[in-house]
Amino acid sequence: METKVGLLAQSARFDLCGTCGQPGSARQRMTLPVERWIYPSALPDGRTVRLLKVLQTNSCTRNCLYCENRVSRDTARESFSPEELAMLFERLRAGGHAEGLFLSSSIARSPDADMARMIATAELVRRRFRFQGYIHLKVLPGASQAAIERAAQLADRISINLEAPGPEALGRIAMQKNFLKDILPQVAWIQQAVEDPRLRARSHTTQFVVGAAGESDFEILHWADRLYRKTRLQRAYFSAYQVPDEDTPLSSLPASLVREHRLYQADFLLRRYGFNLNELVFQPEGLLSLEVDPKQAWAFRHPEIFPVDLAKAPIEILLRVPGIGPVSAKRICSIRSRGLSGIPEDLKRLGVVLKRAVPYSLWEGRALSAGRSQDELPFEGVQDGSRGAGPGPAQVHTGLETGWTDLGGYAGGELPLVKSFGVDRYPGTVLENATKFL
Question: 108 CB contacts (<8 Å, ≥6 apart)?
Fold first, then answer.
């Protein structure tokens, strides 16, 4: 059993479910080898639980080029019966090692047949062992609406991985998966399920493999943004492609972990900071800068917005200031409503990252420190009038769609503004055609 759970838990490690690592204290408390495969995960309500993350089976009939479980790879294969896996989870739960279950599977027979085994496991956990805690079930590509609804009756969260942004990109790395038949209909059914008050599941997520298909960051964020707006997606996860073995058929190099991090930062701007996709700064090939984080890149491009008077600006503008996030922005609004001062030490206690925020900020018209003046802000090479006919301050402040997107990469010189990289500028392309299916 120990060998089996080790293999099937290791095979599930690229499916992301929340925080990426465990605190050192948690690692020190491990007493069983299986605890290496228990991961902390942030739940929708903000709580963090420890999940057993495992596959039902790693036997697969598909040949996805990025996957270590592909059928063409010579590797050990194992499977759990629903009874075995439910009993394993119950032992871990009763011993205080696991608080929830994250269950996925390779496709050994057919999507619905393998979904049925995962559902049977969840049924045993819920009914026989009366577990009412958190369960996340993966939806397999090609699964039926009936299988998805049954999964949503048992799980708190369900999800399907897009893996790649659109039919063309997916076709380069997973020839047996049809984006328009095996992925998008399932996304729509998942949305219907999580909106059905009779079912248990209340949220859904997705995941992209970053770098395997030669895709751009814009393409990934385009699809994530559409899912946020159209399907109530809870969040997207990004997993930098790592070569699973020496005989991988992919020629792609491992993706940069910095690139993965930049995607998460951009994703947060879309989900929590009020940014639109067409406001993010992309390089000409559609990639985010690896040298500058996306919010800082936006600030470099919009010197007309700064410095911002933190004592007066609405929260929508505070969220545009580097070093200020949603929590610290709300705290600033709270203290100023009570007539309190905003000296740097106070702002630091509110959660503001001063080294980022000070060059862009004032308080009641005064600089926050004796540091750089507005004329010394880091906007080298970006001069008034060099931005063309792009969005004016009012448009930026309200977050209105402007039809413009920044594409230059910051390198210390001029950052030209060019027409939108959006799908409307590329009629007939995969990106435009794919939007018809959402």
Answer: 57, 59, 60, 61, 79, 114
Is 0.85 topped by the overall pTM? no
Question: If DSSP states are collapsed to H, E and C, what string results for the chain?
Answer: CHHHHHHHHHCCCCCCCCCCCCCHHHHHCCCCHHHHHEEEEECCCCCEEEEEEEECECCCCCCCCCCCCCCCCCCCCCECCHHHHHHHHHHHHHCCCCCEEEEECCCCCCHHHHHHHHHHHHHHHHHHCCCCCEEEEECCCCCCHHHHHHHHHHCCEEECCCECCCHHHHHHHCCCCCHHHHHHHHHHHHHHHHHCCCCCCCEEEEEEEECCCCCCHHHHHHHHHHHHHHHCCCEEEEEECCCCCCCCCCCCCCCCHHHHHHHHHHHHHHHHCCCCHHHCECCCCCCCCCCCCHHHHHHHHCHHHCCEECCCCCHHHHCCCCCCCHHHHHHHHHHHHCCCCCCHHHHHHCCCCHHHHHHHEEECCEECCCCCCHHHCCCCCCCCCCCCCCCCHHHHHHCCCCCEEECCCCCCCCCCEEECCCHHHCCCCHHHHHHHHC
Amino acid at site 27: R
Position 354, amino acid: L
318, 351, 334, 340: CA torsion to nearest 10: -100
432 in the Ramachandran plot: left (φ > 0), alpha (ψ -120 to 50) or beta?
alpha
Q: Which amino acid is at 154?
A: L
Question: Rounded to an integer, what distance in angstroms lies between the CA atom of residue 414 and that of residue 396?
Answer: 20
Summarised one tens digit per residue, pLDDT across range 7-40 is 556 655 566 555 433 333 333 334 455 567 788 8
Look at 191 and 37; give whichever has higher pLDDT. Answer: 191
103 lies in a domain? Answer: yes
Query: What are the φ and ψ backbone dihedral angles of 302, each rounded to 5 degrees?
Result: -130, 65
Query: CA 317 to CA 305: how far, in whole Å?
Result: 9
- Show the domain range for 245: 2-273
Q: CATH number for the domain including 173?
A: 3.20.20.70
What total number of domains does the chain contain? 2
Note the pLDDT tens digit of each residue in 416-430. Answer: 222 222 222 223 322
- Is 67 among the domain residues? yes
For residue 4, what pLDDT is reported?
63
Q: What's the Cα-to-Cα distance from 276 to each of 221, 310, 418, rounded to whole Å?
A: 11, 22, 16
